[in-house]
Amino acid sequence: MDKVKIALISPRIALCDPEYNATVLAKEAALAAEDGARVIAFPELALTGATAGDLYFQEALTDAADAALAELCDATADIEAVCLVGLPVKQGEKLYNAVCAIYGGEIIGVSAACGLSTRSRLFSPAPDERIRVTVAGQQTVLGGDLVYGAPLGEGDTRVKIFVKIGDDDAPIPEGANLLINPAAAPEYITLAAARRAAVCKDSRSMNMAYAYVGAADGESGTDGIYAGARLVAVGGEVVAESELFSTDVLACEVELGVECENSAKCKEEAPRVTKTPFIPEDKAECEEALSLAIELQARALALRIERSYSKCAVLGVSGGLDSTLAVLVAARAMDILSRPREAVIAITMPCFGTTERTKSNALALAEELGCTARTIDIKAAVTQHFKDISHPEDKYDVVYENSQARERTQILMDVANAEGGLVVGTGDLSELALGFATYNGDHMSMYCVNGSVPKTLMRAVIAHAADKALDRGEERLSRVLYDVINTPVSPELLPADGAENKQHTEKIVGPYELHDFFLWHTIKSGASPARVLKLAAEAFAGEYSEDEIRGYLEIFVRRFYSQQFKRSCMPDGPLVSPISLSPR
Questions:
Q1: Can you give the pTM of this predicted structure?
Q2: Pairing state of beta strands 344-348 and 312-316?
Q3: What CA–CA distances, in Å, run from 487 to 12, 285, 369, 490, 505?
Q4: pLDDT by residue (tens digit) across 259-303?
């Protein structure tokens, strides 16, 4: 059986700095070749970064990429390996999402995405027929169906490489025996399992080795974090996989032309309808997802803090689910940045509806995590505001509630200005879907870490964090986290009835387990309201009647569409679950 050693490399790049990136890629390629790799692959658009957006239309960037590619060719002239390097290639009025194949310093071809991808808005599709182009001062061929052949070092055996760029859906040419998939997709909690399944399925059905190499650190963190995922599958089985966020080279020897029994008949079971679609049912996948959630949020926040030159993170803590997850994330972000956790300024701002339970949990949480805790009572400020706008103090309407939320946001923004910090938003995906947030109040921040996390997933993530805290011997932290989970969800904006706030969100808009279910099937499955109702009635049989579900579904549909204006100007935030409502 023919074999070839491949190296998948996801280095930390500098966005829109091709010259620097070419130096990094050349060094990594040389080391991989010394280790015996004959095929060396980098992520999609690695020479510029894959998150430059409209900057790809700037000649300054495409010219710099072309010059850097020439430098890379010179630097790899003595390497006996095919190097696959992604970059934007401009030819006349056309701009291609391309991968250049370099061998012995020569560009042996340029693969272009066919256009059926997430970046089709930015790039032209590959031409129907191959064309002659000049890239980095060399004449070569560009197309969407190129197969690259290179000797393996013994006899006439050759590896025949086809390059699939990102999620492009180009047909696989006959004769290829190794598929390389340079990609750049933000990581989310269940993507790893889905990626393994897809790569294994394709390697089995195509009868070829399949290697995936994803973008890593250095990309923009505006709407997601990139984890440098890399894996290789042969015959429907994963033979090598890197850890997420690892910068180590993934090198392995793969067999070519592996025949798989029943390769064209891969049986797929229809997914079961579950009550919690955001949380994997498989125990191992669930553990992987819950462990990854906070890490994704924290790395994204750390990147934003670093790139905005912020000295600290400022956030409001209420003792509720949202702010609890956000402060856990902020504390972890400081660990990643090697900064003291005191750089997280956690402010509790009690007002008319604040209960002792939530206030004490907020302060205990900040203390146990080592954050800087502050208490700023806003009753006097809000009361003065009521006088300023001639609003009765005992009129418990939307003005009464929103005034408190906006006062809290003003305090956070001003403290952040005073401290040279960044306001971390706490609002979650469920609230964004329903528009259950105060416009320019808790709706606004400088970076919203929970914007892709629904309430059902949030509870599971915090419970997972509580278990891990107990394993580390942090008993008080674990108790606080579990008490937060068991506290009814409430904005606490109306006067408390004794020690308990009777303003329960789920009594106002309905159960979040239903709304998260509706959201998943509306967005992820594209199901109609009638279809969503049928699925929910099946999943929640015995818990809610069909009439109850229909009533809550009507609330969801009405609020989801009427509250789009709040999502149209929502802050940046990372993708964590498979769903984001970001307008970007």
A1: 0.89
A2: parallel
A3: 42, 27, 20, 9, 12
A4: 655 444 444 555 678 999 999 999 999 999 999 999 999 999 999
